[in-house]
Each structure stands twice: as C-alpha cells, then as structure tokens.
Amino acid sequence: MRNKISYFLIGLAAVIFGFYYNSRVFRVYPQVAGISYDRSISAQQGVPIKVAQAVDGDTVTLINGERLRYVGIDTPEEFDKRKPVQCFAHEAAEKNKSLVEGKTIKFYKDVSAKDLYGRWLGFVYLEDGTFINLELVKQGYAFAYPYPPDISKSEEFRAAEKYARTNKLGLWEGECTITKLKSGREQTNPIE
After folding, report:
1. What is the domain partition of the chain in residue ranges?
2. Domain 49-188, classified CATH 1.10.3120.10, yes or no
3. Catalytic site residues?
4. Which residues of the chain have pLDDT under 70?
5. In whole angstroms, what is the distance from residue 145 CA to residue 10 CA?
6. What pLDDT, on the 0 to 100 scale, is given for residue 155?
7. Which of 6, 8, 75, 100 is at 20 to 30 A from 45, Cα to Cα?
C-alpha cells in the first residue's frame, strides 16, 4: 500500500511540475509561425541583437527567442488575459513594430536584468541612437511608468509624457479615457 501511495505522489509531482514547466517556459518563449530563432545567439547588454518580432507596444522577441520588456514605460494592454484590449493598444503595438521589428538593437539594464517572467528588462536603442523607450512615451504611445528599483530615467520619461499630454499626441488625443489605479499606474479604457 505504501508503494502505491509513493508512486501516486511521485506521479502527481511529475504532472504538477510538467504543467508548471509548460506554463512558464513556453509562455515566456513561444514559437511564432514563420520566425526561425537562432538559440545559439546570446542576448547580452550592449551587444547588438536583432529583433525578430514586436509582441506588443513595450515587449519584443529577440532573434534567439528570448523576450525583452522595455523598462520605465508601459503601453496599453493588448494580450493580457486578465484585462480586455485597451484603447490605443493596437496603435502602440504597430508603432513599436515599425520602430524595431527586423532591426538591430542594443539594450542596457537599469538595476534589474530580468523580470519575474524571465524577460530581459532594458533601455532599448537602435543603431542610429534612437532611444525607443523614450520615443514611445514622447510620441504618446506609452505612459511613463517608474517601477522600482529601475527608475534611473523616470524623470526623463515623465518629461516626455508631459510633452505628449500637452501636445495631445497618441493616446492623449482624446479618444481614450485615462484612469489612474490605486498603484499609481495609469491605463486606458477598454475597447468597446
């Protein structure tokens, strides 16, 4: 009887581990149709790497299959299962795509190298020096979003957001309702 219980517990643990592994690993690095990843390429700060795909307004998949989340900013949600698609999410994703998809970037961390989902966190620059995080905020596609401890450029992002608000750019044009959550994070209204 003890052996059956032991085998049952070991089997149950293996199943639970399998579900956990599947949900963490494959959710973080999904295979996208038509994109061939080169997993031999190592993502490193300050080292040029190609962007395979823009996932949404503030996240990209690198040519090696790893994800990179722009630090210090936040765009309206498009694919968060916990939230409906938010106003200006598609536009932010398209802008990000036009800026970085298929292009070579360099990224640099602030304090944290990765987030709890295993994504790289970084300040992203094109080869011509364009600071992508800042451009998205300045053009009104993203909110300044200081998230400690990664706050070294928060004043720069706040100034860019103020510029976009004042000039009614992007999500500040007036079609979106902007609300502030208890956490201080801003978000747009859901698309009806």
Report:
1. 1-30, 49-188
2. no
3. 69, 77, 119
4. 1-2, 6-34, 192
5. 44
6. 98
7. 75
